[in-house]
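[User]
Um, C-alpha cells okay?
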Amino acid sequence: MGSNNSQPKLFQGDIVEFPRNKYFSHFGVYYGERDGVPYVAHLTCRDSDAKLLLFGRALRSNVRLDPLDLLGKEYKVSNMLDDSFPPRDFPDVVKPAIDNLLGTEVTFDILFHNSEHQATLLRYGVKRSQQIERIYKHIMPAWKKPFEKKEL
C-alpha cells in the first residue's frame, strides 16, 4: 500500500498509513499544521475505557486530531483508491467532516469500521479497507465449502 518513503511530503486530505506490524497498519487523514505541528485525524479507542471485547468492537471510540509524530515516526502516503474514486475537496468537504466528528463517539469495528474505513470515508466518501479485503480473500475459500454443504 502507498509509497515506501518513511517521511513523505503530506498534503491536506492525504491518507497517512502507519505500519504497525507485518500485516496491519493504522490510518488517518492529514489535517494540516497547527502552530507548525503536523496533525492527523484518525479513528481511535486509545485513552477511552473501551475494550475490543466482542468480535473486534469497541463501542466508545472517536475521531481525534493528534500530532503526526504521536502516531508514528514511520509513515507513508496511502491514497490507495485515487484510481477508483475522486478525492473529495479538503477545505469544503473533508475538513468540515473531520471538525464535526471530533469528540463524537463512534463504534470501532475491526471488520466494518476501522481506521482505514474511516480514512477512506473521509477522503473519498466510501468506506473501504484493503487490509480486511485481503483477509477475506484468504478466509472466504475456507468457508465456502461448509456453507455449500450447509455445515455452518
The first strand starts at residue 15 and ends at 19. The first helix runs from residue 68 to 71. The two ends are 34 Å apart (CA to CA).
